[in-house]
Amino acid sequence: MTETTQQYSQAETNRLIRAELKATYPGTAFTVRASNGAGITQTVIGWEISYRPTTTEFDGYYSPVTCELTAGPSEAEIDALAARYSSWEWAGDDGVRDHAPERLVATEAGRLPQPVRYGAGNVTAYPRYRNVDL
Question: Are 100 and 91 in contact (CB under 8 A)?
């Protein structure tokens, strides 16, 4: 018996992303927006990262050397989540995109993972940094 690939549209993929973000980071407000044009499909995940300056060398901009992050997900955590839903991946150092391989995903409890292809194109994490001392 051959398995068929479960194909998700960009809207369906974005709903799955929102549900995972809400379940994983319940106290954080996220935006998940579709951005399409010029032959590309992209989903942008936005949220606020709060920081507090820790040294007198603080120059007004966030830096891990001069600031500490307050509670909430880091950019690396959301980047990792975004990569799981992206239907594109970079093929080498030349900046060329290629279709990501199908992923095996457990879509229902008690069933074996099924091949899935997401329709969100490139999924990108784009945080806004905010100084909590201001």
Answer: no
